[in-house]
Amino acid sequence: MINYRSAKVTATGNVGTGPARLIAIHAICGASAGSIVLKDGSGGSTLLDLDTPASATAVIETYIGDTGMRFQDRIHATLTNVTSLTCIFG
Questions:
Q1: Phi/psi zone of residue 13: left (φ > 0), alpha (ψ -120 to 50 degrees), beta?
Q2: Kindly report the CA angle at 56 between 70 and 35, in degrees rounded to 5?
Q3: How would CATH label the architecture of 5-89?
Q4: Rounded distance, CA 11 to CA 67, Å?
Q5: Mind listing the pLDDT tens digit of every residue in the chain (90 residues)?
Q6: Structure pTM?
Q7: Distances in Å between the alpha carbon of 59 and those of 28, 36, 37, 51, 90?
């Protein structure tokens, strides 16, 4: 059984510390169209790149799957016009 954790960010930066296996994300969009880019560490490879709609009331909920997406260094999020991002990971 995986020990799930979650972390919330409201600006560009690291989501948690150390290696992680991303299971799901929950994001609150901003008033303008934007994006969520998740990299393996701040200078690493882009593993997920999502566009977000222009709607301050829109929510994005994306389930990656039980095996998740592996971040060997750490999850680094670049948020553009996104109010908040919560990552669920193991």
A1: left
A2: 35
A3: Sandwich (2.60)
A4: 27
A5: 568 999 999 999 999 899 999 999 999 999 999 999 999 999 999 999 999 999 998 999 999 988 899 999 999 999 999 999 999 999
A6: 0.93
A7: 5, 13, 16, 12, 22
**What would you report as the CA-atom Rg of the chain, rounded to the nearest whole angstrom?**
12
Dihedral over Cα of 40, 76, 68, 28: its sign: negative
Other C-beta atoms closer than 10 Å to the C-beta of 5 total 12
For the chain, the domains span: 5-89
Residue whose pair of structure tokens reads 């750490």 in the numeric block: 74
